[in-house]
Amino acid sequence: MAQRRSNHISTFGSQLTAIVSVTLVLLILGILAVVGIAGNSGADMLKSNLGFIVKIERQTPETEINRLKQMLNASPYVASYVYSSAEEIMATESQYLGEDIASLIDVNPYGAEFDVKVKPEYASVDSIEAISARLTGDSAVETVLTESTMVAAVNSTLERVGLMLFMVAAALLVISIVLINNTVHLAVYSRRFVIHTMKLVGATGSFIRRPFILAGALNGVISAVIASVLLIALLAYGANVDPLLAACFSPQLCAMVICGMLVTGVVICTLASLFATNRYLRANYDDMFMK
Question: Which domains does the chain have, with CATH numbers?
Answer without folding.
Answer: 2-45+154-289 (no CATH), 51-146 (3.30.70.3040)
